[in-house]
UniProtKB/TrEMBL annotation:
<dbReference type="Pfam" id="PF04014">
    <property type="entry name" value="MazE_antitoxin"/>
</dbReference>
<dbReference type="InterPro" id="IPR037914">
    <property type="entry name" value="SpoVT-AbrB_sf"/>
</dbReference>
<dbReference type="GO" id="GO:0003677">
    <property type="term" value="F:DNA binding"/>
</dbReference>
<feature type="domain" description="SpoVT-AbrB">
    <location>
        <begin position="2"/>
        <end position="47"/>
    </location>
</feature>
<keyword id="KW-0238">DNA-binding</keyword>
<protein>
    <recommendedName>
        <fullName>SpoVT-AbrB domain-containing protein</fullName>
    </recommendedName>
</protein>
<dbReference type="InterPro" id="IPR007159">
    <property type="entry name" value="SpoVT-AbrB_dom"/>
</dbReference>
Length: 80
């Protein structure tokens, strides 16, 4: 499945209907963009807001520790 679309002046791209249908994408769904092998890759992001608070834990992680964990993850994901 391949389609050609244009980039608008605002940097927006319309995802072709055939691709939106294939991935069941709806308005306001979120996509994760990354560069892989010098190509732009977009992946649908699952909405986790519906399960927030569903899993209980007895441990506590401070905001500072959370930020540190996220920073390390991002650095490892986008390391050059």
């Amino acid at each position: 499945m391949s389609n050609i679309t244009s980039l608008t002046q605002k940097g927006q791209v319309v995802i072709p209907k055939s691709i939106r249908n294939h991935f069941n994408l709806k308005a306001f769904d979120k996509l994760f963009f990354r560069i892989e092998n010098n190509k732009i890759v977009a992946e649908p992001v699952n909405d986790t807001n519906g399960v927030f608070g569903m899993f209980k834990t007895n441990s506590y992680i401070s905001k500072q520790k959370q930020k540190s964990i996220v920073k390390k993850f991002i650095e490892s994901k986008f390391k050059k």
